[in-house]
Design brief:
With about 190 residues, the chain is α/β, with parallel strands linked by helices. About 55% of the residues lie in helices and about 15% in strands. It has helices spanning about 20-30, 35-45, 50-60, 65-80, 95-110, 125-135, 140-155, 155-165, 175-185, and strands spanning about 5-10, 35, 85-90, 115-120, 165-170. A five-stranded parallel beta sheet has the order 2-3-1-4-5, sandwiched between helices. The protein is globular and about 40 Å long. The N and C termini lie close together (about 5 Å). It binds adenosine monophosphate.
């Protein structure tokens, strides 16, 4: 496999689309850090940090953490050495403002987003998966709220990245291994 150096990719998809699972698998296959903002925030809540205290109720309600707070979290994370040679972002950006923040952070380092992978999964499958997963924020009403927030705030990113020629759509309603293979192929790394 070609070296994955320099690959800065975003995984896009609704909650329950399998982004986290695939980000981990791609990370192992490509040797790039998978950066999950949801994981970082859950860790902050678990640690009882100041950040955790600020985001806990927002997360529990299935709403989005404020863009300026997320900008600070991601800026700090991308500045760490392991992200210098590339990364897979899982769960960020989630709004057009966050996409702008990501562009700014990368532009400061003379870099840019190389690819955006969209995991496409039918709505009823998303709800079934999320309910089966039963995380603290996975009560059915919260699941539905997270989907609504995705449609309203995050889905505009699909068109935004499509216009920029960065979007690659992958069918996320297949066996896990097949999806990973398609993602790797979509990145031109197979
Ligand atoms: P996830 O694990 O990516 O589904 O994220 C879990 C929760 O963390 C989301 O429902 C949001 O409350 C919060 N979160 C994660 N990433 C972001 C982000 N980029 N912007 C705002 N909120 C986020």
């Amino acid at each position: 496999m070609a070296g994955a150096n320099g690959l800065r990719a975003v995984l896009l998809g609704a909650p329950g689309s399998g982004k986290g699972t695939q980000a981990e698998r791609l990370s192992a296959a490509l040797g790039l850090p998978s950066i999950s903002t949801g994981e970082m925030l859950r860790q902050a809540v678990a640690d009882g940090s100041e950040l955790g205290a600020r985001v806990k109720s927002v997360m529990a309600a299935g709403e989005l953490v404020a863009d300026d707070l997320m900008a600070a979290v991601v800026r700090e994370r991308l500045a760490r050495p392991d992200a210098a040679a590339g990364f897979l972002l899982d769960g960020f950006p989630r709004t057009p403002a966050q996409a702008g923040t990501l562009d700014e952070i990368l532009a400061e380092a003379g870099k840019a987003v190389d690819a955006v992978l969209l995991l496409e999964v039918p709505e009823h499958v998303l709800v079934e998966r999320a309910l089966a997963r039963r995380r603290a924020d996975d009560r059915e009403e919260v699941v539905r709220e997270r989907l609504r927030v995705y449609r309203q705030k995050t889905e505009p990113l699909v068109e935004l990245y499509e216009r920029r020629g960065l979007l690659r759509r992958v069918d996320g309603h297949r066996a896990i291994e097949q999806i990973t293979a398609s993602l790797i192929a979509a990145l031109g790394r197979s």
